[in-house]
Amino acid sequence: MQAKEICFPGKEQFVLQSCEPSEVLLPNQVRGRTIATLVSPGTELAWAAGDDFPVKPGYSAVFEVQERGAGLTGVSIGERLFCMGSHRSFQQVDVAHTVAIPSAMKPEIALLARLMGVSMTTLMTTKARPGDAVVICGAGPVGYLAAHMFLLAGYEVCVVEPDAKRRAQAQGSGIRSVFAEFPFDRPEWAGHVALVVDCSGHEQAVLDGCRIVRQNGEVVLVGVPWRRQTELSAHELLNAVFTGFVELRSGWEWAFPLVSRSFKWEELLEGYNNSSQSIMAGFRKAMKWLAEDRIPLEGMVRIETPDIPEKVYRALLERSVNEPFVVFDWRRLDSGH
């Protein structure tokens, strides 16, 4: 079967088209058929509404190794790997940028390691410590996973989400403190929050976050502010930051190197970082938690066939998808289902 990929050829246009794999397989690369890919609704719908086309979307994939670079060891033919791959029927990637998937793990679950990585950087850099109060604003795909990651790490977690459906999902997953608005009327939260992780990209949420944290607390911007949503002035935000001694900072997930690289005399000119953390190490942590079934995901994943992407993305645009996680199963495309 000819290789296929999802493409956005124009504004809010979604097609499955033919593509060609690279004929060259580098010594450090693996290549194989895609099993499943994960939709990132916020990012991909923003790309679809943009002005720069064509777009080849997607950044989380699970695939089965069919080919290895010459002399490559440590990975087997038939092994399943996770990578930051796009929505296409094959993947070709540097093996250092992959994570092995436990044999019993469902591919649709393994894919979520990518979205967990978005807020993993904040978890690894925050000044807040286990036992501190943390507010997660926005219970979409990234926020839902962030809330459970901070719970697993021992924090007191509160979720703020105006959407009733998402609030119900958060509450049903075992998160005790879930509110439609910031809990300024709750003395256990107001002025005692060590960290606010904004996954909404909404100006009002960021301002409210700056107003609820304790002195010298952190407000981290994980959600992308794709568009202006209020008439708030910068003065209101600056006043909250200044008077509350708030540390307002980016939640840029790429603050760590992709892989840790230690010092070696014979490879000195190729660079090193000696970082104790890395993006790939964060993915491995996420994969371990997912494999141990430590994040409630029952009924949270919707699986679709990639043959008619228009149907899937249109449903996401219309907000008619109940599940927070949408997965394309490329095996169904191969089987014709």
Topology, please?
Layout lengths: L3 E4 L7 E4 L10 E11 L1 H8 L12 E8 L11 E4 L6 E5 L3 E3 L6 H4 L2 H13 L7 E5 L3 H12 L3 E5 L3 H9 L4 E3 L13 E6 L4 H10 E9 L12 H11 L2 E4 L28 H13 L9 E4 L4 H9 L7 E5 H6 L2
Parallel strand pairs: 8-9, 8-11, 9-10, 11-12, 12-13, 14-15
Antiparallel strand pairs: 1-2, 3-4, 3-6, 3-15, 4-5, 5-7
What structural class do helix, strand and pairing data support? alpha/beta
Number of strands: 15
Q: Count the helices. How many?
A: 10
Main beta sheet: strand number and arrangement?
Answer: 7 strands, mixed
Can you identify the CATH class of the largest domain?
Alpha Beta
Q: Please tell me the total number of domains.
A: 2
Distance between the termini: 15 Å
The ordered H/E elements are EEEHEEEEHHEHEHEEHEHEHEHEH
What are the segments in which pLDDT stays under 50 over at least 5 consecutive residues? none
- The percentage helix is 25-40%
Strand content: 15-25%
- C-alpha-based Rg, rounded: 21 Å
